[in-house]
């Protein structure tokens, strides 16, 4: 009850501020702050629905609207299997079941390496024409369902699927675009280390993860190790701090020499 | 030692493994057939024996002697299973049958001898049962104790198929037989080196000395060779009949019709199990068709079968990869459902409020399996191996993973971690070019023709992009001793200008992409 009252109070607070903000639209710093305030209003309003957060990897969680993956929401991931596995890892380790529908090329070994529990991972590599029915059936029981739509479906079907997701509280991750996604995650500017012109091997990668939301606002992005030389996913520290951390190159070359010795 | 020796009757079916294989339709009755166990001929048919094939030959030598030889693996389970039918038929005529091995069983003579009016008459009655079953060439021996009776059965001829050794004449009958008949290869070798070659010579040794030198086991074999076989015949307890069978007349040729027909017996099957306080965790479905085809398959269940699960398994087996309403190649005449593993129902009782999320998951997956077929829903297991396809094994939901390659072993030459996130189910052709535009090659000594400079992920060669970093070639030469499965390839990791890394394979001059690090 007290939560509800608090929420109402905060809504009134923002409601009283909105006309004041509208008078400041002309100057650009003011416009930015208006946008920020509007985003905050929306996020607080969204939180009044009964949407709980799914455990999310800390390197990515703060980029997402609401600070994590939400139950019953849909996220789209621009084709990157690594990013997908990073999203699956935390819920899977927390004991959730995950299903991957329509991705025959899903690399299970890499998933296990990123921390996805293979015992609670179910694959439907080739659902054919029935991908929507299979995805809906999976949404009944699985906490996270990953799918790659082979083609566009009608809006009616999409609405039914999202209603089902909300009702069951499972999260849908779509590889590719999706009209009603909560946020869109993409990967850019990959830089691999440990590999040179004819020597070494792929050991670590830094990439920029960008999250843009449906509701507008500036996309948020962060530089992330995907993975780092110890095969973990972490934020890339700013240069001042990273000087104290292990330099990536030396670790990668150590791995490379190990490998060469093994061969 | 001084227990009374029982008059016993032993039935011996020569070449039972061959007969069993022919009965389930694995080979024609008159074909030269050999069953192989670990590279050695375990049993062969009469036609093969006429060509010089015999037990104990290596496969290659047997095939050299008889080029038309049909070679099949020996299946012990099949032997036991099909001999059960014979024992059931005998039990219908005379009770108290002991199953010694597939192809050999023993009965106490006293009862049947009084009923049929004489020992020989009882033996003939037993043979009549076998002939009625269509098992030709079986022999019967009647003597004191099962060991002597079995030797008598083996010495019977095709003309006189019942051999009776009179009471008390066992020692006389066994005497001239070779020592190799006692089933202890180590003891046989030792006795031969001591100059003992027949059972009579072994039986003539003083019993106390044999006991002192060879222990309890040796003393027992000594008693056997003297015709003093005091082992009792322990009749088997017939197991409860839990199988369910349904016949279709006229034969049905559509999957949905058969599935509908199976529904009622699936209910009865589960009810019967519940009546015995059992649940079934593995079952075998056997399907007979009009053209004489026979299909059988074992199905496992992660928990226990319900009636609708049983119906699903029958449908999947009929369906194979075809659609639900597809026609079958020939009409189905009968379906049999046999429980392979049962468990006490107490271990599988659902809790008062269900068993939480796992049960929900299982229901959802079963529903998807009934849409897409058994192999449509899989879980993945990391296996051993060098190629990525080898290292990733998918197991249909409900089956047990069967790993042939141990992931704990080192597998030198496997890829360094991290593993690629996208593994193409079938590697697709790509183009890798040197800076002068020529294709990059690797010679037989593993030397690159030129450094890879540009790369196109499409088979057509479009979308050419610069390579910013690369590593390789990493040669993989697998199973070079076997021409059929030998594989020689070189692997490369390349990073293209957009920052995407690829795992490329050069095999026999053709480049393909095996995986992508995206």
TrEMBL record, chain B:
Keywords: DNA damage. One of its GO terms (biological process) is DNA repair. It comes from the Bacteria. It holds the Pfam family IMS. CDD domains: PolY_like. Residues 23-186 form the UmuC domain. This is DNA polymerase Y family protein. It comes from Galbitalea soli.
């Amino acid at each position: 009850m007290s939560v509800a009252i608090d929420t109402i109070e905060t809504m009134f607070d923002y409601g009283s501020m909105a006309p004041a903000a509208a008078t400041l639209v002309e100057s650009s710093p003011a416009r930015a702050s208006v946008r920020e305030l509007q985003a905050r209003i929306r996020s607080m309003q969204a939180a009044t629905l009964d949407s709980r957060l799914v455990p999310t990897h800390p390197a990515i969680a703060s980029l997402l609207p609401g600070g994590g993956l939400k139950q019953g929401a849909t996220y789209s991931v621009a084709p990157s299997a690594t990013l997908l596995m990073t999203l699956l890892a935390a819920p899977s380790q927390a004991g959730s079941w995950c299903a991957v529908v329509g991705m025959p090329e899903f690399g299970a070994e890499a998933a296990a390496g990123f921390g996805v529990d293979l015992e609670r991972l179910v694959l439907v590599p080739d659902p054919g024409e029935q991908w929507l029915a299979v995805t809906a059936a999976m949404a009944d029981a699985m906490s996270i369902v990953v799918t790659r739509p082979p083609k566009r479906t009608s809006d009616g079907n999409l609405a039914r699927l999202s209603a089902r997701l909300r009702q069951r509280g499972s999260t849908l991750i779509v590889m590719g675009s999706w009209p009603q996604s909560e946020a869109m995650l993409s990967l850019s500017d990959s830089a691999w280390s440990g590999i040179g012109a004819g020597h070494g091997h792929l050991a670590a990668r830094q990439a920029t993860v960008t999250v843009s939301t449906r509701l507008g606002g500036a996309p948020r992005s962060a530089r992330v190790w995907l993975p780092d030389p110890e095969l973990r996913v972490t934020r890339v520290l700013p240069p001042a701090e990273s000087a104290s951390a292990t330099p990536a190159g030396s670790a990668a070359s150590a791995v490379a020499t190990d490998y060469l010795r093994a061969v | 030692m001084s227990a009374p020796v029982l008059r016993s009757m032993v039935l011996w079916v020569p070449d039972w493994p061959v007969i069993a294989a022919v009965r389930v339709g694995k080979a024609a009755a008159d074909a030269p057939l050999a069953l192989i166990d670990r590279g050695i001929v375990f049993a062969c048919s009469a036609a093969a024996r006429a060509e010089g094939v015999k037990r104990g030959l290596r496969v290659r030598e047997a095939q050299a002697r008889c080029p038309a030889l049909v070679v099949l693996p020996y299946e012990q389970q099949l032997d036991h299973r099909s001999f059960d039918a014979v024992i059931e038929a005998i039990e219908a005529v005379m009770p108290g049958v002991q199953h010694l091995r597939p192809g050999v069983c023993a009965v106490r003579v006293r009862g049947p001898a009084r009923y049929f009016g004489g020992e020989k008459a009882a033996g003939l009655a037993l043979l009549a049962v076998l002939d009625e079953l269509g098992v030709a060439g079986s022999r019967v021996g009647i003597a004191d104790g099962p060991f002597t009776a079995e030797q008598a059965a083996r010495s019977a001829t095709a003309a006189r198929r019942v051999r009776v050794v009179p009471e008390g004449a066992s020692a006389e009958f066994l005497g001239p037989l070779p020592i190799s008949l006692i089933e202890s290869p180590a003891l046989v070798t030792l006795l031969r080196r001591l100059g003992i070659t027949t059972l009579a010579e072994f039986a003539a040794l003083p019993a106390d000395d044999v006991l002192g030198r060879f222990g309890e086991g040796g003393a027992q074999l000594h008693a056997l060779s003297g015709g003093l076989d005091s082992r009792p015949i322990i009749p088997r307890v017939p197991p409860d009949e839990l199988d369910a069978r349904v016949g279709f007349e006229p034969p049905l040729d559509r999957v949905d019709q058969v599935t509908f027909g199976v529904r009622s017996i699936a209910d009865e099957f589960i009810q019967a199990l519940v009546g015995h306080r059992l649940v079934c965790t593995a079952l075998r479905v056997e399907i007979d068709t009009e053209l004489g085809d026979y299909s059988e398959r074992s199905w496992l269940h992660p928990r226990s079968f319900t009636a609708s699960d049983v119906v699903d398994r029958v449908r999947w087996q009929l369906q194979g990869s075809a659609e639900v309403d597809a026609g079958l190649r020939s009409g189905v005449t009968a379906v049999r459902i046999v429980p392979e593993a049962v468990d006490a129902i107490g271990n599988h009782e659902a809790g008062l409020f269900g068993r939480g999320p796992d049960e929900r998951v299982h229901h959802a997956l079963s529903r998807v399996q009934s849409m897409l077929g058994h192999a449509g829903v899989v879980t993945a297991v990391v296996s051993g191996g060098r190629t990525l396809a080898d290292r990733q094994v998918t197991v249909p939901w409900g089956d047990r993973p069967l790993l042939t390659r141990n992931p704990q072993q080192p597998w030198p030459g496997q890829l360094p971690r991290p593993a690629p996130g996208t593994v193409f189910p079938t590697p697709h052709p790509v183009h890798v070019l040197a800076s002068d535009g020529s294709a990059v090659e690797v010679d037989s000594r593993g030397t690159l023709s030129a450094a890879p400079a540009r790369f196109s992920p499409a088979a057509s060669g479009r979308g050419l992009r610069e390579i910013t970093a690369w590593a390789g070639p990493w040669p993989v030469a697998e199973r070079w001793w076997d021409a059929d499965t030998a594989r020689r390839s070189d692997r490369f990791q390349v990073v293209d200008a957009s920052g995407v890394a690829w795992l490329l394979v050069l095999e026999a001059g053709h480049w393909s992409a095996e995986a992508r690090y995206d």
